Structure formats: C-alpha cells, structure tokens
User: Fold this.
Amino acid sequence: MSITRRCDYACRIIRAAYRSGDTYISIAEVAEQESIPYSFARSIQHELVKAGLLKTIRGVKGGLALACDPSKTTVLDVLEGVNGGISIADCTCADYPCVHKDCCSFNALWCASNALISHLFASVTLEGLFTQGANHPAIQAAFASCENAPVAE
Assistant:
C-alpha cells in the first residue's frame, strides 16, 4: 500500500491552510508553495470542502481556509475525505468477491494491517503533526514498537 499522490497533495493543501491561520489563501498560492499542479489542487480542494475540512470564499480576497478544528481532526479524517479510506489490499473491502475470504490467513493479516495503520493515522491530529512533526508521541511509539519487534530466525 502507498499513500496516493492525491492523498499526499490533500495533506499538503491542509498543511498550507493550517499555516495560513485565519487568513484565506488562494489555491493558486497553495499550489505554488506546495509544488502541486494547479488543476489537480483545484479538484482536491473541492473534495476537501465536500468532506468539511476546508471552506472557501470567492473573490479577490477569497481563497481557502480550514473548516475543521485541527486539534480534533486527524490524518485519517483527511485521508478518508479524499480517498474514502485506507486499505492495504482490495480483498479487505466488505464487498470484495472472494470465495476464500472467510478462511484466508492473508486476508486476516491484511485486515489487521489496515487496523494498525488506521489506528496510527487516527491517533495523530493535524495540530499535533504540524507542531510536533516526527516528535509526535504516536509516531515515536510506532517507531519504538518496530525497533522492539521480535525478529523471526
């Protein structure tokens, strides 16, 4: 699984809106600052507005701003707003047609992976990420759990 370019750009647009504070910033300015193609940024902006994460105003002093509380909005909220959810494999989706799904060890592993990733993303608020970065406790805990994980011999 990888975070799609659309998800990455959405996170960067949210970051630019967070940095602008209460001031509206144009999508053209965001696109330039974040090195996002303008037309792609516009389409992602619409998805973020629809998800309730951004608000926009038209006109000369218009632009976009956060419509959500960054201390309560998580990275998972952003990814779900743009991507509809996180899935490491197609077969983890409820409507995926697979006759082996209920007895497949791999499916259980993929579902567990989804749960771990979703839990991590849900534990990181935008404000926490933008103020603490790599020092965020959830990120540090994830790194620590990987370092202490037993290695099969």
Observations:
- The first strand starts at residue 54 and ends at 57.
